[in-house]
């Protein structure tokens, strides 16, 4: 790769990094491409040379973040895959909350409000292909310990529904959520009724 191509790749990566930070903390509507360009000291036309419009930039920024996060989450799973189910689920959940900075509810609202069904499908495929795959492996590897009357995708989906509100952009909230996670996972696994 020549110097010019390397500079172009560096610019594209920098745009995605800044765009992701802004989109995931402030939301789609509150983030302007002008602000992203200003943060990078480039012009909007230069940014649009790489990413044709705001929607494409949003989708690519999410892909960029989810891809990096998913690779790291998979490594965390591989390091801990021999732990008992509850410990493994706790480790993976702590990693997700500690390392995935996102305001999930703003992101969901943005996707539902500003994107077409086809665009939403593309975004959700990237989203599901990342963290979902790892959690599926966690549940699948311990399927003999789990209820057989509930399909593993149902179990994973239910767990994610419970976990997603704990994933925050704010550092202080993420730390608080990690501190409460052991109790939440225990309740998810064991329920709240007496045996």
Automatic annotation (TrEMBL):
Residues 32-51 bind DNA. Keywords: DNA-binding. One of its GO terms (molecular function) is DNA binding. It comes from the Bacteria. Transmembrane segments: none annotated. The keyword Nucleus does not apply. InterPro entries: Homeodomain-like_sf, HTH-type_Tx_Regulator, HTH_TetR. This is TetR/AcrR family transcriptional regulator.
């Amino acid at each position: 790769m020549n110097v010019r191509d390397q500079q172009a790749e560096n610019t594209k990566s920098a745009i995605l990094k800044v765009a992701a930070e802004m989109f995931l903390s402030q939301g789609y509507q509150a983030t302007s491409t002008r602000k992203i360009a200003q943060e990078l000291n480039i012009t909007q036309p230069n940014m649009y040379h790489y990413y044709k419009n705001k929607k494409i930039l949003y989708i690519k920024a999410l892909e960029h973040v989810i891809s990096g996060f998913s690779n790291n989450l998979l490594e965390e799973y591989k390091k801990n895959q021999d732990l008992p189910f509850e410990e493994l689920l706790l480790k993976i959940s702590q990693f997700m909350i500690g390392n995935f900075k996102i305001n999930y509810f703003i992101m969901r609202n943005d996707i539902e409000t500003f994107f077409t069904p086809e665009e939403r499908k593309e975004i959700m495929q990237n989203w599901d292909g990342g963290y979902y795959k790892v959690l599926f492996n966690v549940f699948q590897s311990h399927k003999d310990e789990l209820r057989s009357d509930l399909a593993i995708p149902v179990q994973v989906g239910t767990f994610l529904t419970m976990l997603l509100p704990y994933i925050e952009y704010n550092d202080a909230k993420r730390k608080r959520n990690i501190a409460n996670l052991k109790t939440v996972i225990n309740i998810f696994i064991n329920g709240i009724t007496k045996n």
